[in-house]
Amino acid sequence: MLDERKMKILSAIIDDYIATAEPIGSRTIARKYHIGISPATIRNEMADLEELGYLSQPHTSAGRIPSNKGYRFYVDFLMPSRKLDDYEQSIIKRLLKKRAKELEELIEEAGKVISKLTSYTAIILGPQLESSRLKHVQIIRLEEKKGLMIIVTNYSTVSHHIIEIPQNLTDSDLQRISNALNSSLAGKALEDITQDVMNSIKDDMIEYDNVLNFLLDLLMENLDDTKENNRVYASGSSKMLEFPEFRDVERARNFLSLMEKHDLIIRALKTSCKPNNITVTIGSENPWSEFQELSIVTTGFFVEDKNLGICGIIGPTRMEYSRVFSILEKVTDYLNKAISSLL
Amino acid sequence: MLDERKMKILSAIIDDYIATAEPIGSRTIARKYHIGISPATIRNEMADLEELGYLSQPHTSAGRIPSNKGYRFYVDFLMPSRKLDDYEQSIIKRLLKKRAKELEELIEEAGKVISKLTSYTAIILGPQLESSRLKHVQIIRLEEKKGLMIIVTNYSTVSHHIIEIPQNLTDSDLQRISNALNSSLAGKALEDITQDVMNSIKDDMIEYDNVLNFLLDLLMENLDDTKENNRVYASGSSKMLEFPEFRDVERARNFLSLMEKHDLIIRALKTSCKPNNITVTIGSENPWSEFQELSIVTTGFFVEDKNLGICGIIGPTRMEYSRVFSILEKVTDYLNKAISSLL
DNA sequence: TTTTAGCACTCTCGCATAAAGAGTGCTAAA
DNA sequence: TTTAGCACTCTTTATGCGAGAGTGCTAAAA
Predict the structure, then answer these.
(1) Which residue, among A156, A149, A148, has the nearest Cα to A129 in the 3D structure?
(2) What is the DSSP string of B111-136?
(3) Among all strands, which nt has the closest C1' to A64 (CA)?
(4) Is some CB atom of chain A closer than 8 A to the CB atom of B176?
(5) Nearest residue to D22 (CA, C1')?
(6) Residues A222 and A234 in one domain
(7) Do A64 and A56 touch, CB atoms closer than 8 A?
């Protein structure tokens, strides 16, 4: 563990580097942060901190910048906790006031708020509907052979699928089948609706034997679609180009094309996130090379204590962690409230 | 009008500039394109072309680059028409094979194909549902006071809205109201469903007088929502950073943040597009300053001769117009077919 | 009259050199 | 243990210079 003075110096260096993106020298520390020791002493301490792996030097005669280990120590022990200012408060509060009617809207809105307030890229994953319960399923006829299968969950998400209707079914058949499906499936968690459950329905409705297989298979398929609706809401990626980290076009391009690879993002966020806490993955802590120079901050959002999705922020490792934490915390807090008031 | 030789030279310069992004000198023209005259003569012609406004010079001792007027002339008169190669053909054909079940999917897919093949940003606007016909409307109860209103058009688009259901309505009331709405509204174009039409329904169903107003207002509102579903599908904007035009981060940032301003994009595309032709708006031909350095190529896509939306490409003014035209033409051609086979 | 060769001129780009500035590490004194 | 002093390193910025590319003009050739 570092002693008091080293921590003070490390903290000052990281704060300054986050603010300026320039390597920090001993003189700067002595001048700006009044620790009461001379640059020479600070230099010695800095050499120690470098040897311990918390700092590094871009070249011999430059100042120091934090290493990933340095950021990690900062986030875990040094980072000041921070209150939201009035502006941030008011923007976040509006989230709850918007009174969105559907979950997706709300989630998208939350993403926009996060990217607006932090200037980093907001990523939201979800809603993950495995643990949601089926509220309603209905088949409506549109044409002779074409129908609409509608699946509503208790989280107020609706998904619809255009399906083919077997020839010989009348409207009242469809209604009866819908009713039967509802009475046996409504209230069940999506993840619990397995092939077995489906089979037991078949036994109850032997009258429709010939067509039911077909419809149940369709329903199963559509439920799967609904479940794995792992949508990625990304917002504010163009703002990232304002950071000096992306002054190099090649880097900017890499970042932007990474943002278009939703599978990589989903994997990285899921790996990073422990839903109940706010977690940070700093640079090379992330196992995939695409994220080496980036940090990911994530936390889960919930409904009825079930993890519904992940709120995340992707930015350069030189990130204003303190600000990001405070904002992300508050936004998910409000998002949780907004979601439960939606149901 | 330009004489034969000037056109040859202008054409050579623009072709070369589109390929290399470097100013072209008289020697290059003489060497690469065998027009059979010496650099000195070409120089004279180039000076003329500059005076006429078709070319410009970045600085005194540089080669020439095309002006907007030059590009315009090129697109209107000089541009070679071009056949698609096998690769392009096969990618586009897959569009039709995909057999998407819904219009939105299809449109999104078309956007991806365009951006993949051109490397420019694809923008698709639509579907515009004003002229679509209502195929089905239904209200389903989800809870005591909560229901789902579903609107299906003859273009197979589905939109749903969670609504509040007046207390005193039974399920069979809902069904009866749904039926009544269907029989009086189904088959009508969305744009023809006006307040007057709604009022005449009220007359037919005086029994529900007290709640009907409320539901009809909701329906009206939701129909409006459905109509103005002016979604922007943008795809491939990160690829644009590969072009030397965006080697400057500031420009790249401007471009990317423009791509996030969907209202500006909608306005620009709508202004630019004459649905029945493929149209180009080059640089400052676009009235809004944000697009000064960009060109927009657009064309409409249709269903049953009704304009359903706009397919467009946004790229630097130094765009491979010939390639873009051929691809855009073919994609909308296939898109039109795919849409009509969807119905 | 049109085309071309020749040539002086202009401007950019790359490169080397130099000076300035920032910061370090080491040594020796406080 | 801390600090002042100093030599040293490395980057950044400015400057100058030559090479290269391209032009416009003039005068000769076709």
Answers:
(1) A156
(2) HHHHHHHHSSEEEEE----TT-BEEE
(3) C23
(4) no
(5) B61
(6) no
(7) yes
SS3 state of residue B285: helix
Which of B42, B60, B78 is the C-terminal boundary of a domain?
B78
**Domain boundary, last residue among B227, B246, B276:** B227
Structural domain span for residue A193? 134-226
From the list A54, A257, A8, A315, the residue with the least C-alpha distance to B115 is A257
pLDDT digits (tens, 9 = 90+) for A111-168: 999 999 999 999 999 899 998 999 999 999 999 989 999 999 998 899 999 999 988 8
- Note whether B273 and B180 are same-domain residues: no
Q: How confident is the model over A179-201, as pLDDT tens digits? A: 999 999 999 999 999 988 988 88
User: Smallest Cα–C1' distance to nucleotide D9: which residue has it?
Assistant: A61
**How high is the pLDDT of residue A95?**
83
Looking across all nucleic acid strands, the nucleotide with the smallest C1' to CA distance from residue B63 is D22
- The count of structural domains within chain B is 3
Query: What is the C-alpha separation between A102 and A318, in angstroms, rounded?
Result: 35
> Å from B256 to nearest chain A CA?
6
**Cis before residue A127, ω within 30 degrees of 0?**
yes
Please report, for the domain that includes residue A15, its CATH number: 1.10.10.10
Q: Please, what's the b/e burial string for A217-246 (b: 16 or more CB within 10 A of its CB; e: otherwise)?
A: ebbeebbeebbeeebbbbbbbbbbbebebb
Residues B96 and B198 in one domain: no
Q: B240 pLDDT band (50/70/90 cuts)?
A: very high
Distance, Å, B156 CA → D29 C1': 75
Q: A140 and chain B: CB distance < 8 Å anywhere?
A: yes
Interface of A with B in 44-83 (CB under 8 A): none
pLDDT at B200: 86
